[in-house]
Design brief:
This protein has 291 residues and is mainly alpha-helical. It folds into two domains: 66 residues; 182 residues, hpI Integrase, Chain A. 56% of the residues lie in helices and 4% in strands. A three-stranded antiparallel β-sheet has the order 1-2-3, with no helix packed on it. Strand 2 and strand 3 form a beta hairpin. It is globular and about 60 Å long. The protein starts with 8 loop residues before the first helix and ends in a 7-residue tail after the last helix.
Length: 291
Amino acid sequence: MASERGRSVNTLAAYRRDLTGYSSWLSAHGATLATVERTTIDRFVQARRGSGAAPSSVARQLAAMRMLHRYLMEEGVRADDPTADVEGVRVPAGIPHPLTEAEVDRLLSAVVATDPAGLRDRALLEFLYATGARISEACGLSLGDIDRDHRLVRLFGKGAKERIVPFGRSAAATMDDWLLAGRPHLEPARWARRGDQEAVFLNTRGARLTRQAAWAVVRKYGEATGLADRLSPHVLRHSCATHLLDHGADLRIVQEMLGHASISTTQVYTKVSQERLWAVYRQAHPRAEQR
């Protein structure tokens, strides 16, 4: 899948966990990948749903199972694909819950950038909000991906798809502070891995910042500002998209910025903007609730 479908490392890891769990369940129920029938797969899906697993998780696991059984059939391990007629898992279209602009301001103002780690944290948070980048995209950034003169960044999203995204003066200023005054102090005398030397965001040991460490940065300032129960890297992505649309950005431009393959994925943010519009209207218009 990594070579043929361009799946990311994180997606492959999730599929691996899904298939390991599926295989273990089959073994516990007296079946194997070569002998399992559709009725048994239906039972497995129902068991996963009954376990409280999120619909999106069950849908992803079923997708991994379909790919596996299709592969086994193509390779001649078995003559049929028992997942071919298995009913798909419906995933409810969730509405994002972005921060308000005032909450974003409060979050970014909470970072006291007086040391290298603080400069990095401020740059990371500003970058996530300014570009709507996924946390994995930010952690995967290399120095050559950023054009500081023109305030553009090259991001590699799902399926290794490349896109160019602009970022504003505020994010540019914090990125300059980090790259010029912070990052040099975290550079080791000798790089442990070649990829670390090109990484934009480093940890305190001079290695590329991991997704888990970046998550911890976001959580740290969420707790400091009372936003911990609502804040995540993806909420900053949601906030970027919603605020762009609130201020009149074209939906197609937002789609391109976020790297969505389908416009329907981006359209969910219009629902958020419409709900906010109605909330303001009901509160402000004197005849909004009169009949």
